[in-house]
Design a protein that fits this description.
Length: 91
């Protein structure tokens, strides 16, 4: 198993209505806490939150948390369901 935490688009190319960004790895929970106003949501429940870069609000979307080992990869996994415009996806 790789010890890196990765994030990548998990949906189609923009423009689109929704863009899904998936995070996976050991620091996923910490990353979600850093960007989502809701902190770490309850496992397998979608929570509406502001997505932030420090104090700047980038978007509002759904945050989902799938703690390992009960995730598709066996690692901690999170998904951010954001608006699909290229500007939002680029941050």
């Amino acid at each position: 198993m790789i010890d890196d935490t990765i994030y990548a688009p998990a949906s189609g190319a923009p423009p689109s209505g929704i863009a899904v960004v998936r995070l996976s790895g050991p620091d996923t929970g910490e990353a979600v806490r850093a960007v989502a106003s809701c902190g770490l949501p309850p496992p397998r429940q979608a929570v509406l939150a502001e997505i932030r870069d420090g104090e700047r609000v980038l978007d509002q979307g759904l945050v989902l948390w799938f703690p390992g080992p009960r995730s598709f990869t066996g690692e901690d996994v999170a998904e951010l369901h954001l608006h699909g415009l290229p500007r939002v996806r680029a941050g």
